[in-house]
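Researcher: If convenient, please comment on what follows.
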Amino acid sequence: MKNFICTTCGVQAEKSAKEPKECMICNEERQYVSPNGQTWTTLEEMIQAEKYKNEIVPAEEGLYTISTSPSFAIGQTAYLVQEKNINLLWDCITYLDPKTIGEIKKLGGIDAIALSHPHYYSAQVEWAEAFDASIYIHEDDKEWVTRPSDRIIFWSGESLELAEDIVLHRVGGHFKGAAAAHWKTGNDGKGVLLTGDIIRVVADREWVTFMYSYPNFIPLPASVVERMANQLEKIKFNRIYDAFHRIVQEDAGAAVQRSAKRYVDALNGELFET
């Protein structure tokens, strides 16, 4: 029995004797099945190949990025937030080896793992077991959990205070239970928002975007983006880190608001003529 991992999205499945026939995460319009077909691996195979390594890099005071090189599956970045009473892993990556575990334990370990949405569930149970951590997922995305665990806590409502200075907010959009993490004391007390790709920083780092499906370019309705912007306007943050280590360095709250307006204007045919 093995916990197979989809090589396209990097999400680990429940134990089975044979490879699953399909990946529930990829077989849906927000993701995709590889043109080369569905393929699987395991964490054990990845470690034995000696191909991958994780890079843990300081981003700012109290924040580290964790990413796999060479890139695997979606290639997202996870973040380790160090606060007074909690070390939080925001989002997750698939690859985990003894070297990574040792390096993170030197940084104080991981007390909790919080996820923005199902595409980054990855090998979250492996990570939780390695560090004796709890996993926080909004209950609206419960159906997308491919490897159940007693460590998973399904939270409800619009927000959850994980610690004095870290609050999860359900903002929806990309997924019904999609969440962002507000680190109130980050960026020297100005506030940081960790967004996965619920809010994606674009090529012009002064702007962000919102999508139902990024690989298939399916936009969100204008009404949903307006609701998200209204909700985020009530949260104080100066900086955004997204799932691919793109950063809005300053005045990120204003960037979200003007980006939402531009997005809505484009959908409503008010931004340009073509």
About this structure: The CA atoms of residues 19 and 152 lie 24 Å apart. The radius of gyration is 18 Å.
